Amino acid sequence: MITSPSRPLVLIPARMASTRLPGKPLADINGLPMIVQVLRRAQDARIGEVVVACAEAEIAAAVEAAGGRAVLTRPDHPSGSDRIFEALQKLGGEYDSIINVQGDLPTVEPATIAAVFALLQNPAVDIGTAVAPGAPDDRDNPAVVKAALELAPGARAGRALYFSRSPIPSGEGVLWHHIGLYAYRRAALEQFVKLPPAALEQREKLEQLRALANGLRIDAAVVDEVPLGVDTPQDLEKARAHLAVKGRA
């Protein structure tokens, strides 16, 4: 019998390799490494234990110096989900749900993380994620992933039917910008990482389509703001300005 999760674990995958911003987990944002800023946002969500799953000892040292916990993982994982699964296995414990917070989202709101986790209160949901209203420029930008949701009028959560880099669905209405933040039931994560890549996943270059292709249910929480993902020096400056306005060190 599927029940509401009672022992969640927040995992933050991070690695130093980045073509556009090398070493970005340690990039300074208002006096703290970026990975520590993400750690603080995740801790502020007050869901459960927060651990950084990192590929290099330098990241672990920065996290531990800030009072956080880190676990070293193989550097050659193809995705964050593979990295967090290794970390979960190393940590042991009876965690029944895992929240995957990307290590390059220093501006993510703790309430967004909490909203994604809350989706698992529905026993029919295997994986939770988040969306926010897209900007006009998002529509034809393939770097912005769009979500097609079955969403009742005024609802703050709905079932995800598809994800694409193309503008979906057609017709009038909000275009939902997908936020790469996930909450998994443990069994769903264990199933997911053992599955081979799906055909549509390979075509769209979107890992979550593997879950949909294999019958896992994904629901999305509607939030007000898309957190800034840091991929370039310009993004880094925007993140510094954003957090300074928010009064976050």
Describe the 3D structure.
The protein is of the alpha/beta class. It has helices spanning 34-44, 57-65, 80-91, 110-118, 186-194, 199-204, 208-213, 233-246; strands at residues 8-14, 28-29, 32-33, 49-54, 69-72, 97-100, 127-133, 146-150, 157-164, 176-185, 218-222. Strands 7-10-8-9-11 form a five-stranded mixed barrel. A two-stranded antiparallel ribbon has the order 2-3. The radius of gyration is 17 Å and the shape is globular. A hairpin with a 2-residue loop joins strand 2 (28-29) and strand 3. The chain has a domain at 7-108 and 229-249: Spore Coat Polysaccharide Biosynthesis Protein SpsA, Chain A, CATH 3.90.550. The protein contains eight helices and eleven strands.
Would you kindly provide a brief summary of this structure?
With 249 residues, this protein is α/β, with parallel strands linked by helices.
Q: Provide the CATH top-level class of one domain.
A: Alpha Beta
Overall structural class, as computed from helix and strand content, comes to: alpha/beta
Give the DSSP E fraction (strand runs of 2 or more residues): 15-25%
Please tally the β strands and state the result.
Answer: 11
Biggest sheet details: 5 strands, mixed, barrel
Poorly predicted runs are none
CATH architecture of one domain: Alpha-Beta Complex
The third-level CATH topology of one domain is: Spore Coat Polysaccharide Biosynthesis Protein SpsA, Chain A
Please give the radius of gyration in angstroms.
17 Å
Terminal residue distance? 44 Å
Q: What is the global morphology?
A: globular
User: Which whole number gives the mean pLDDT?
Assistant: 94
Give the H and E element order.
Answer: EEEHEHEHEHEEEEHHHEH
